[in-house]
Design goal:
0% of the residues lie in helices and 47% in strands. By secondary structure, it is mostly beta strands. The strands form two sheets. The chain has a six-stranded mixed beta sheet, with no helix packed on it. A four-stranded antiparallel beta sheet has the order 1-3-8-7, with no helix packed on it.
Length: 116
Amino acid sequence: QMQLVESGGGWVQPGGSLRLSCVASGFTFSAYSMSWVRQAPGKGLEWVSTINTFGTIPNYANSVMGRFTMFRDNTKNTVYLQMNNLKPEDTAVYYCAIPGPNYTDRGQGTQVTVSS
């Protein structure tokens, strides 16, 4: 069955960087666009970025534009999110997901905490 496993989260000070990874299995990864979404404490899911099947066209939420970079390696069934210049408001659980209503097809998430 479809499985998405995120890793790379942690604690970082404002201005720091993290790289999240998500390994996919159980479906034809290269045939799907992929997304990152996040959920901050007490808030709903927020779309962060989406990348097309070839990894050539990433799109970003305004809140992360210029700071986050999404890319993928179809030979490794893996999608990444490079996060630079992190801010406290980036604190959330980050999920990789197959784009769809409410991003129901998503992993278990990885916690990112940005604080001093």
